[in-house]
Amino acid sequence: MDDVKQPAEPGHAPDPATLRALVDLAPDGIFVTDPALRITFVNKAGCRLLGYGCQEIIGMTVMDLVSEEDLDRVGSVKEEMLRGNAHVGEWRARRKDGTWLALEVHAKFLPDGHLQAIARDISERKANDAERDTLLQKTESDRQWLRTLVETLPLAVMLFRPDGQVYFNRRTEALLGMTLLPDRGSAQYASGIHFPDGRPVPPDRIVSARVMRDGETVIGEEYLYVRPDGSRVPVLVSAAPLKDADGRVVGVVGAFQDMSEHMRLEQAVRANERLLQSIFDILPVGVYVADRTGSLVRANPAGERIWGGTRLVTLERYGEYKAWHVDTGKPFETDEWGMTRAIKRGETSRGELVRIQSFDGALKTILHSAAPLRDENGEIAGGIVVIEDITALHEAQEKQRASEQLMRAVIDLIPVGVWITDREGNITLANPAGERIWGGVRYVGVEGYPEYRAWWAETGEPIEAEEWAASRAVRYGETSHSELIRIQTFDGSFKTVINWAAPIRSDAGEIVGAVAVNEDVTSLMRVEEQLRQAVRDREEILAIVSHDLRNPLNALMVAATAAERKARMLPGGEPVQQLAESLVDMSRRMAGLVDDLLAIAVAGNGGQSMLSFAPVAPSGLLGRAADAARPLAARQRLELVLDVKEELPMVAADSDRILRVLANLLDNAMKFTTPPGRITLAAERTNGTVRFSVANTGPALPPEQLETMFKPFWQAGRDRRGAGLGLSICRSVVEAHGGSIWAEPALGQRVRVCFVLPRAVGM
């Protein structure tokens, strides 16, 4: 560091090529325009800022790049600069990708009318020195280039003369923290120069003095400068002699760099390297790095875990890593590895499935990606590989694929139509049965559903697109069951189908599609209608026949009863009395059969519509049933027990029909109870119902008979008394009341038959 303050000598300025190289290496964007603000030059940093190729920018105007709000002030700023004033301001520029970039722009017009501007991205670096914004302004003369360079370099630059004069840029005063006078030389700041350990530098050892005296070049010596305010600045000093044609030193140029930020950045870089190493070590994926020859030089712990170890081998020994192509099973050759292709051909590969055998013998499936590493010149300097162990995922995917294939095979074999839609309702799959039902398939979205012509079977109204069950499933998450619809197939025929649909949901519950099922019930509906007609005909005949039989049977019973009484009073009338009793018994049985036929007609015609419901006391029903059965029980030497332990709520019932149920159960019990035996008639309160039961003593019935005894025409053992309709009729009547009936084993009993009836409303 010496004396003097004047511009650098023109003869010592760098050549234009050097200056252009410096401009291209500048970190800020440098732009030159003609007087019409059309860009004629831009450096590489400017191209990077705006995201354009340099040739794309040449020819564009400033107005093409600035925002609309900045466009209005272009004219006023230009006029200000034409008056000789430099402009420093913030602007918004549109990048090639359409995003906006905030820039700090330093610009001025040169004497030749060209505009020079330096643009800096201030979105991240607003605090950078203002001098850098005017770095390397373009000029047609070497002197202008040099002056612009010196003034805008982020360095303190000084030119020392043998006479003690010193020239300096503004950065020098900022670095030294003081105002310099050109004619006072280095003496004005020499006392602040120290070695890095804090020792003062003797005047004859100051760099500018040494270079001026010895003609030596000094590169990158470190010093500590203490400013007048006491602050300390680490400084990197470089200096070179300026010699005339005879080799005499005629000056010294020195460059002084404030290393405070550099040292801070170095510390940050080291910290960043430690951070990157930590990240490298904890990454859950394996990472391998190779040099430009393909030799593996680095691997992280995850890579070692995946491979069961690490071998940092050369490219020629990649075969030690055993691997196969998943799709073909073919072993990997050295040239097929992603690292080889990256280093030899600059190829990037992503997500390749590879089957490997790790060094511990385990077989795994990995996801393999590779890319070349390039130096600052774009040359391949190495390669990087990233691997991820997806063994479990791959096996799960294989199982899922197998499951999907199985599901598709099952769907194809299902005899009903199956339709799958996506989350938008678009039909994506239909099985063969569905195609047969509809006579074809239309893979359409909801808006195309009207191509499937259908009507509601109940109303005959057409089914709109949004009314289809599949549409409701994907839109509202609705599940539909057994919707009866009439369709016209694509071949024109009409059919009746039952339609179901439900939403398909992800694990998170999100609707991702729908499944619909069609069952062709055309033939079934036809047969069902025929059966219904046959049942109606049968029930009508039964009702007519039973009604027509009741009157003559009643008359026969009355006549037989009268004959019995008269024969009892006549001497020698015993044969007539026995005949009359036989007629009464047969008439009673015939009347019971007629009642059975009427009960079948009641159940077959809808049950409840032919019943007369009223609140009835269960104890009254049991008492009447027991009174009617006691004479016959006494004649058969059977004990009839009535068991009602509590006050029971009323039930809603047709008392005549329930009495008939109880009579059938008691008659059946007496028929199969061996004297002397016991029959128990009971009732008890249950949850919302009253439970009635009839139990009789005797050998227990086999379990299979308990399940079948309520079927029509069932008879116990070889007994053929009666038509076998009694228990079947009991079930029909009880179910018509909204109840249920069953048989169950009971300790010491042949069987216990139970039925429940709902309580009367409010009881």
Automatic annotation (TrEMBL):
Domain of life of the organism encoding this protein: Bacteria
Major enzyme class: transferase
Domain Histidine kinase: 544-761
GO biological process, one term: regulation of DNA-templated transcription
GO MF annotation terms: phosphorelay sensor kinase activity
Domain PAC: 219-271, 350-402, 481-533
A Pfam cross-reference name: HisKA
Catalysed reaction equations from the record: ATP + protein L-histidine = ADP + protein N-phospho-L-histidine
Domain (PAS): residue spans on this chain: 15-85, 272-308, 403-439
Keywords: Kinase, Phosphoprotein, Transferase
Enzyme Commission number(s) of this protein: 2.7.13.3
Gene3D superfamilies: 1.10.287.130, Histidine kinase-like ATPase, C-terminal domain (3.30.565.10), PAS domain (3.30.450.20)
Record protein name field: histidine kinase
Organism name: Sulfurifustis variabilis
